[in-house]
Amino acid sequence: MHSHNQNNDTMKKLFTAVLICLATSAHALQVSDSLFISPSDNVANLLMSAADYDSWILNDEFQTTNKPTVLTSKLYQYFKDDFDMIMFITNEQDRPSTIPYYGINSSIANGVKGIGKSIFNYSSYFGSEGKLFSVMYLPYLNAIKYGPTLHEFCHCWANFAIPTVVSGHWGICGGNTKGQLGGFEQSTLMTNVDGIANKYSVESFGVNANGGNGVPYNEMELYLMGMLPIDSVHEFDAFPEVDSESFQYYDESHTRISFLANKRNHYTQASLIELLGKREPDYKTSQKEFRALFVVLSKQPLTSDEWAAYESGINWFCQTSDDGLSWLYNFWEATRGLGSIDPADLSLSLKSAPSGFVDVDMPVDVRILPSTIICSESFRIFNLSGQEVTDLNGSLPYGIYIVRTANASKKVWVN
User: Fold this and answer.
1) Residues 116-143: pLDDT tens digits?
2) Residue 38, Cβ density class (10 Å: 0-12 exposed, 13-18 middle, ≥19 buried)
């Protein structure tokens, strides 16, 4: 593509700007020597040296070093402070044996009262100017779709409220349904089992989780997340002191679990408010739409197939509609259609036009002449909302535009 310094303002701004290479099916936007943005503009790829990448996995450096702050600070060299969450994903098909968990959340800021957390903000250590409140890590690709993605997002708000036998999770705690952070379905609770006053039985459940992205958020989780009012939370019991040796399957079919508990806490809407205080902001004014930056860590630039896999998983998780799968829940479904996560249009969050390079696979030659565009084949110009720009004599606002031909498309930066 060639450009000439002419008086036509629109064409000058459009085609003398730095070119961003993005063929729709194959090429990612290269922001720097080590950072790329996916063809669909919804996920970034941050390259690490082979030694750093291997060390990250081998030594679990998300938890054991300051590497996450180094990586996020690097990201903020290129991105504006537009994101509520950053999710790192290592480019592994399966969970590495050296990583002892399936996902993890690090809360770095909290401005919500009444959920059991103090008010704090350490986002500046991560390069944010105050917006970022969570950094998460999934150690392998399939975790995006099958979990624990919902689980880790839930940890931004829960469980810091209810004392349980498993820190940060529901443990042996009831709910209207099983929760993303564990817990049993309250309606299945049986008391005085075998005639023993402190023996209980419930349908099988997990104390930390209940099946990846296969269960939606329960009422208490949605309340803490700011999606529902306290009036929507039904009464439930929690057992913070349990004889661990008594915790076992109660029947041969493994459909029920029994346990002995020395303490049983019963929670009502009123007692939750007494314990935690009112949630501020409440569900009417709480944030329900979130901006997330998904970043794949890898040793080498992602292949076309790898880009497609990450784009597909993230698009599924963040879509604001029913996915048609009865056994999986995306974020919108898990929040009953009340919450959403936006990963899109990462190019618009760049601080400035990145250093570009010519896309040799782009079969079009666009040249600027005074008030005339000459190209080797027909093309159209669109903004990132999909609206076609038809007035080529006007002034284009600052941002990213797409020049599209019959065979390919290219993004250009107007600054």
Assistant:
1) 999 999 999 999 999 999 999 999 999 9
2) buried
| Paired tokens of 190 | 């049986």
b (16+ CB within 10 A) / e for 344-376: bbbbebbeebbebeebeebebebebeeeebeee
Distance CA 78, CA 354 (A): 8
Map tokens 């929040």 to a residue: 335
- 402 forms beta bridges with 382, 411
Neighbours of 222 (CB within 10 A): 26
Q: What is the pLDDT of residues 18-51, one digit of tens each?
A: 233 232 334 677 788 799 999 888 999 999 999 9
- Complete DSSP assignment for 61-94: HHHHSSHHHHHHHHHTTTB-S--SEEEEEES-SS
Angle at 51 between CA 45 and CA 54, to 5 degrees: 70
Contact status, residue 167 vs residue 158, Cβ threshold 8 Å: no
| CB half-sphere exposure, 350, CA atoms < 13 A | 26
**Cα angle for residues 166, 170, 174 (degrees, 5° grid):** 135
Regions of the chain short of the pLDDT cut 70:
1-27, 353-379, 383-385, 390-415
